[in-house]
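Input sequence (93 aa), recorded before submission:
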Amino acid sequence: IWQVQPDLIIETGIAHGGSLIFSASMLELVAACGGPADARVLGIDIDIRAHNREAIEAHPMARRIDMIQGSSIAPEVIEQVRAAARGRDRVLV
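Predicted structure, token format:
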């Protein structure tokens, strides 16, 4: 993450959201050191449980996190990911 300094990190499989929070925290540190200030994490999962979504959205790093519920190979989800990546220079998957 430090070397690439991505504008966007895409994660497939959210589970409880721990890696989303970790990635968002790393992007926050990179931004504090001059990296992309608006970098985001996009999490995709076929089933985002309500209590997990609520916990992620309540976390201070939630401002860097977006989530999509659906299959990562579904055409409509792929289009949402493409839209999120549009205009981003460095995307890490």
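Checked by second reader. The helical segments are 18-32, 50-58, 75-85.
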